[in-house]
Amino acid sequence: MVFRLVLGCGTVGRHVVERLSERDNDGRLLVIADDEAAVEALRDESVPARQGDPTDASVIRNVDAPDVLFVGADRSDVNRAILETARAQFPRASIVAYRGGNPSENDRSLFDELADHVIDAADSIVDGVLDQTASPSAETAIELRQHLESIDGRLAVVTHDNPDPDAIASAVALVDIAAAVGLEADACYFGDISHQENRAMVNLLDLDLRNLSPDEPLTDYDAFALVDHSRPGVNDQLPEELYVDIVIDHHPPRGPVSASFVDLREHAGATSTVLTEYIDRFSLTFHPATATALLYGIRIDTNDFMREVAPADFRAASILWPHVDTSLLERIEQPTVDGETLGTIARAIQNRIRRDSIAVASVGRLTDRDALPQAADQLLAMEGVETTLVFGFEDEMAFLSARSRANDIDLGATLRDAFDRIGSAGGHADMAGAQLEIGILGDVDDSDEVDSIVSVVEEVITNRFFEAIDTRPGSSVGTYTRTSEWLFTQHGETDGGESA
Fold first, then answer.
1. pTM, rounded to two decimals
2. Which terminal residue of the chain has fewer beta carbons within 10 Å of its beta carbon, N or C?
3. Spatial CA neighbour of 171 closest among 324, 289, 53, 41
4. Domain DDH spans what residues (predicted)?
């Protein structure tokens, strides 16, 4: 519950109080002013108000610490005195201060120094104040701060497996925010960072990440946050029953999301956009490495602002740009490509099966899983191709990556229709992935028999994808269902997560 304290109730302050009390906010409001008539009028309107001099420290000494404080008298000198008193009494509050009618240069400097947000444009005063104190994003930022401050111990900020730039940047940013409120935290991930650009980002920006192993105890941590995914045990290797404190994501959830604090922004193009907004809301200084990572994360997830982009993504980019190390960003975007990745792309092109504007390809055994999305992107660049699926095998798993620019295909829904019964799948309309467990391969020693089974699995995956495309919307149930269910369920339920 957000507690807002208004100190001083001049013309601007009164308008702000009226608008706040009109809104259906889940929070508390208290007004303290020295004008007895104004206080009585507010009480008549059922607005909690007290009479007292808000410049007097003794008047506010016993007031609960507010989450948001508005300085709203009419005169600049009075507001300056209120601001000085309030900042001393409530050092952690987010303060929005009205400069008053005739501020001096010294007043302006002090307001800029002590207030988190300063309002002085008469034509937008009320809207500006409400934006800083009562908008949904401001509410959410306050709640996040409260949750972080309530954590006793060390926080693990966990990305999805084999994290992409958006997940990595979001984790690093949340660690920065935690540090700002005095909370120790680590950015953590399971799996590998094997994509060339991803490795370049981590190495060139010197990002501090902890690689967790599946059998590693989690006793170092007292709380857990998930970024760029929303459920423990789904596309990460945390226990499914793990209690999660914080979830921040932009993907549509595949099921119920349970955490103390949940922020799902399905209309944002990247989780990095959400974290950028938090840092800005908290008035924190952007570290160049974090800002560069966040901007790169947004650019990758929105395909340079061409895919599933929202106005918030452009706003975040404009906030980040002054703090970005552009020379490092250029080096991240132009890494060397190793031979294994080029080989995977070549096999995808050579093995592709084409039906109208859809291309599907198996690349066989994988040495670099992150080469799959690059291969899917390369197939999508071919003339006449609008949708691609590329898949390969590693150990006893099949990994799938899909891309589309067709307006009538939702890849996330298509892959769930095709593979959710035999694995784990999901993603966006134009970018999705799946993981399927092929446990039967572990029982076969003869290489010819392995090749034969792999050939059947390739046929199953290809046909289930085409069936799901042909029968959209709805589940894909076709001639290969029984074969595929037998192949993929010989060794129990799958536990993978979506991966693009």
1. 0.61
2. N
3. 289
4. 156-298
